[in-house]
Design a protein that fits this description.
Oxidized Rhodanese, domain 1; 3 domains; Rhodanese domain protein; five-stranded parallel sheet; 12% strand; 11 helices; Rhodanese-like_dom_sf; Thiosulfate_sulfurtransferase
Length: 324
Amino acid sequence: MRSKLAMLESVLIVMIALASGAQAGCSSCGGGEGVWDGPTWIEATLSGSSDEAATSSGMEAGAVLEVKAGAEEGTEAEPDTNDEICAPSITAEELRERLEGDSRPVIAYVSNTPIRGSYIEGSIALPSKSLIRADGSLKSIDELARVLGKAGISEGEDLVIYGNCFSCGDATFVYWIMKYLGHQNVAVLRGSQQDWSATGISQSRGMSATAEDVYIPDPRPELLADYKSVASGDLVIVDARAPDQFGASHIDGAINIDYNRVIEGFWLKDDSALSEIFVDLKEDRPVAVYTKNGGQASIVWYALILQGYDASLYTWNDWLRHQS
């Protein structure tokens, strides 16, 4: 437990720069222009953390979150036995087959604006902004767990995420949050509304309400890079901002891969194109991706994990804080 808390403490400061940008830079995302600026809460949300730490993170003293059995004792939690959705993405045809089977996944619509047309029947509302505080910071693990539980999601659910704007980054950012919370079976639906409509998936004009559940996270702090690891030179650093922003100022040694370069239509470019884009990266070295915008950074992060890279997110704002 002590080692896990120490690891989480190392990312405490950087987490203050993690969230509002998930909505920024895309009018349909509801955020307008903004920066990626998130929480200071990680070490205060694990069982056994101090009241002082909880208070400093904006939580009431004693508000400690339960963690998966085994994590607090330094043992590995029992793996989820449901591996039907273990890939990072799912096609519309694959989803249709799942919906027609005996084990229906939870389907979450994560954009912050209504869809133009119909939703996938049975979809629940999980707007990305519901995971973010009013000040733009990412909610605490405790708060995130309550939001997910209230939406009817538990940590053992098969979860499919979709939205109305892939390039806004809502889907990939929520996917990153779910993986950060330790969610095992979660996937982003590939393609556009036209793609899944063409498969004959049942549709509805509205979304569904489900019974509340309990969500117990198993945090994975390694998915968030901190200043020390970025400055160490041990990571390959990817700046996912536009070339003009990169040219104005960037982390020393960073490689510029504008997030728009990995997108084609309503999804990512194919494996061959992504391999060419990532040609300067080394698969045997971990990668940290940063921007001012969490949604944009998460798109490149997501493309990297699909290509088999060991990738994490970082934030430009945290780097600037350490330079001042």
